[in-house]
Amino acid sequence: MTEWKRLHPLSPIVRGGRATIAVGTVLLLSLLAGRGSRGSTPELVIVGIVVVLGFVSWFVTRWRIDGDDLRIESGVLRRQSLRFPLSQVQAIDIVRPGLARIFGVAELRLRTGGSSGDTARLAYLASHEAEPLRTRLLALAEGARVHEGTREHEGAPASEPADQEHVLTTVPTGRLVASVLISDVGILAEAVLAALIATALLSPSAAAAVIGGGAVWIFAVLTPVWRRFNQEYRLSLAEAPDGLRLRSGLIALSAETIRPGRVQAVRMVEPLLWRALGWCRLEVDLAGKQRSKGEGQAERRPLRTVLPVGSRALAEELLERIVPDRPGVQSPPPRRTLLKSPLRYRMLAWGRSETCVATTSGRIRRVTVWAPLEKVQSLRRVQGPLQRRLHLATVHVDTAGHSVHAAIRDRDTAEADRALADLSELARAERRKKAR
Asked: Which numeric CATH code is attached to 5-163?
């Protein structure tokens, strides 16, 4: 058991985020405009109250490692003591938002398993303390025994495994920019900008009115472009003993570990324009409810991008590490599927191995999904009115993930029935093998 420790003294400032910037702006304007006059007193009082509340929040929050648990206590009037078993930790991430990078601090985020997807947050620690603490907590999560008396006496970590990792790929900035520009969000933003430029050349007064009245829509189409670039900037994927490690970000840096047990399904996306260049995008669907206080919109989604853009050969290398026993061949649907899905027909296919099912679909962009059979929660056979007339059926493969769905679409009814029976038996066998 370690002694109680407090977070970094600057934690309230970083945790405030936009509120900190707003308070700082108010304080600066008051000092410049009022020069200490009575008119600036209300603003200074508000700033003082915010500072005091932040200090109190920092002072009453403490944490320590208690055996195999991480304990976090907080609160003044209503004291709250949380205990997070390290044996249930799925991953430990390091997050550095923009303000955190300015003040030299980092957040340590522990994700636990289960349907609740609880998250323990140590926000914030000194940057030089975050990585050693992460390594130590991972060692405890794996059952290592850390002897605090020996550590304190020797003044150095003992019995902690070497944190070795092998970088698999790093996305070049030029390729990322090009991929965003020819993606769906990029093309939409370019179309809006082209329309504005054309309007400005033909009628400047009309362009000013459009920009003034449609600023919200312009911001709406540009935001996804910026968000994708900001989140995937210089993304690197590395293989480590505890799983796959993702590092990325331009303004807000993030470092996340994806353990093999968390992956529910894998998706490869090949947009129309990307296919001409031989590019694809690789994403994984993770288990757990990724909705925790203090997380951004992108962090709340269970879908994680492990390869924003890359060649098909590189994607195959990464797939060997994530789903090594995936099907090598996929079979096309019956010819009569053309009557129901003429645009999708040429991309429809599916296949299976003893441990994994793969499906391919799409009308304009090709999407291939691999779902490990040990992760399958249910199997559904669905047949719509037109499918009944054509003697077709679809088998849906459901996992604990929320974003990636495998569907064996528009197969002959006899083939769909065989697939349903075979996959049900294989999924049961994989679950029994895992339980041993």
From this structure: 2.30.29
